[in-house]
């Protein structure tokens, strides 16, 4: 299986898991990353950077929505 794909599968699983399950998933993520060579880490880094940029944009959109709601609340 593609290691980058598996990383994101584990990341999504982590978000939906209990605290106890997260410990096991964290260990899997660490083991996976240790097995990755420089060539495999490069696309992972790019993907993670893209993911963070997407989250920052989502946060900006949510902030705008909240501001609009706050402005319209008195109406």
Structure description:
The protein has 75 residues and is mainly α. It has one domain. It has 3 helices and no strands. The radius of gyration is 18 Å and the shape is elongated. The N and C termini lie far apart (54 Å).
**Biggest sheet layout:** none
Low-confidence stretches: none
Number of distinct beta strands:
0
Helix content: over 70%
What proportion strand? under 5%
Average residue-wise pLDDT: 92
Helix vs. strand class: mainly alpha
Tally of separate helices: 3
Distance between the termini: 54 Å
Q: Give the CA-based shape.
A: elongated
Number of domains: 1
Compressed to H and E, one letter per element, the order equals HHH
Oligomer: single chain
Query: Over the alpha carbons, how many angstroms does the gyration radius reach?
Result: 18 Å
Topology:
Layout: H1 3-15, H2 19-35, H3 38-72
In short:
The protein is mainly α. The chain has helices at residues 3-15, 19-35, 38-72.
């Amino acid at each position: 299986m593609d290691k980058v794909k598996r990383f994101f599968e584990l990341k999504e699983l982590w978000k939906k898991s209990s605290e106890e399950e997260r410990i096991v998933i964290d260990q899997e993520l660490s083991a996976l990353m240790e097995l990755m060579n420089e060539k495999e880490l490069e696309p992972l880094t790019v993907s993670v950077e893209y993911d963070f940029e997407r989250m920052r944009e989502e946060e900006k959109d949510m902030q705008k929505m909240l501001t609009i709601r706050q402005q319209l609340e008195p109406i």
